[in-house]
Amino acid sequence: MINPVLCFNIEDDGWDNALSCPETLSENIMNTALDYMDGTGSLDFLPQDKTILIGLTLDNDENVRRLNKEFRNMDKPTNVLSFANIDDPDFAADCQTFEEVELGDIIIALETTSREAETKGITLHDHFCHLFIHGLLHLLGFDHQNDDEAEIMEQHEINILKRLGIANPYME
């Protein structure tokens, strides 16, 4: 099993009121997701003897909109952004060179996440768990650019959420 460390940051204080113990919750989500993914063999590309750093920032729509515009040319907020270092051509070399491997960063926007949870009729807690897992899967190289990729990624999300006691978010 890899040695993950969550680099946790709250940029919008509203998250402290929105979720109970957000850092502890996030660490639990991360560990549950990575344990599940390790069981699928999906973590075999990561060095087992090094610390794996995962960044998570809880932010707001304004800052996420700015990042979305800068990096994706989309001038609007979104629920979650993931910046995966696995996409960097030097990632494999960095895994060999450095004692700590930065897997990437995830940023989640409070207002969009809250609106979506309300619209879906689910708790902010459950939607946050889903979005963080979704972001983690992107850091691990999963995507949803086509139907086959989306199906694989969604099945992993469903299975991890089940381990956390959260219902399938894709059921109608």
How helix-rich are the residues, as a percent range? 40-55%
Share in β-strands: 15-25%
CATH class (first level) name: Alpha Beta
Inertia-based shape: globular
The biggest beta sheet reads: 4 strands, mixed
What is the CATH T-level topology?
Collagenase (Catalytic Domain)
Q: Which strand order do you get reading across the main beta sheet?
A: 1-2-4-3
Total number of helical segments?
7
Radius of gyration: 16 Å
Low-confidence stretches: none
Q: What structural category characterises the helix and strand content?
A: alpha/beta
Can you offer a commentary on this structure?
The protein is globular. Helix 2 packs across helix 7 and helix 6 packs across helix 7. It starts with a strand and ends in a 9-residue tail after the last helix. With 172 residues, it is an alpha/beta fold. The chain has a four-stranded mixed sheet, sandwiched between helices. The protein has a single domain, classed as Collagenase (Catalytic Domain) (3-Layer(aba) Sandwich), CATH 3.40.390.30. The model has no long low-confidence stretch (mean pLDDT 95). It is built from seven helices and four strands; from the N terminus they run βααβαβαβααα. The chain is 50% helix and 19% strand. The longest helix is centred in the first third of the chain and has 18 residues.
